[in-house]
């Protein structure tokens, strides 16, 4: 009887060992197949997918530049000529608008001095100066719109040189 029990126990142990021995090999094969399928998916991108990913990377990089340089350029009193310190900001915007194809509104603003009519005109000249620069850098004119607020939307309230200098501006907005 002891030999029968030992034989049965040996048979059960052999079956368990056989089952346990096969399972890891099958699991390893399944994992290898899954990894190969995933790698094949990465390799098999279409040229269109690759181009779209590259374009999105360009847009993201250009948008970061715009965020770093800001959306505002400033002007001297009674002037619509772009300052040299505005070039980096405007170049970042030009690059972003070219790669993204988005449209932008350029808002022209003035300080409170001058008549309402004169300030609306001056704000429009400032917005158009920005548009002129952006189009000279390759941005399509159809992407740009000028709006003048004159003195109606000050960035800073006040009637002093500091407030006036911050209100003489053009703001780029998507």
TrEMBL record:
Where does this one sit in the cell?
A: Cell outer membrane
Q: Which N-terminal stretch is annotated as signal sequence?
A: 1-19
Q: Name one Pfam family in it.
A: OmpA
A single GO CC term for this protein reads: cell outer membrane
Biological process (GO), any one: cell division
Matching InterPro entries, A to Z?
Bact_OuterMem_StrucFunc, OMP_bac, OmpA-like, OMPA-like_CS, OmpA-like_sf, Pal
- What is the protein's quaternary organization? The Tol-Pal system is composed of five core proteins: the inner membrane proteins TolA, TolQ and TolR, the periplasmic protein TolB and the outer membrane protein Pal. They form a network linking the inner and outer membranes and the peptidoglycan layer.
What the record says about family reads: Belongs to the Pal lipoprotein family.
Q: What name is this protein filed under?
A: Peptidoglycan-associated lipoprotein
Protein's organism: Umboniibacter marinipuniceus
Q: Which gene specifies this protein's sequence?
A: pal
């Amino acid at each position: 009887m002891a030999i029968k029990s030992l034989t049965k126990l040996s048979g059960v142990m052999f079956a368990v060992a056989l089952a346990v021995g096969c399972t890891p090999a099958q699991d390893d094969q399944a994992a290898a197949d899954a990894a190969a399928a995933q790698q094949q998916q990465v390799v098999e991108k279409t040229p269109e997918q690759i181009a779209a990913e590259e374009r999105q990377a360009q847009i993201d990089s250009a948008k970061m530049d715009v965020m770093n340089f800001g959306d505002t350029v400033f002007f001297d009193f009674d002037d619509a000529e772009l300052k040299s310190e505005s070039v980096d900001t405007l170049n970042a915007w030009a690059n972003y608008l070219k790669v993204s194809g988005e449209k932008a509104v350029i808002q022209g603003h003035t300080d409170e001095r001058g008549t309402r009519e004169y300030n609306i005109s001056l704000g429009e000249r400032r917005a158009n100066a920005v548009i002129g620069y952006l189009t000279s850098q390759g941005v399509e004119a159809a992407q740009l719109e000028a709006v003048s607020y004159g003195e109606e939307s000050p960035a800073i309230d006040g009637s002093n040189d500091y407030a006036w200098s911050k209100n003489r501006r053009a703001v780029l907005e998507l």
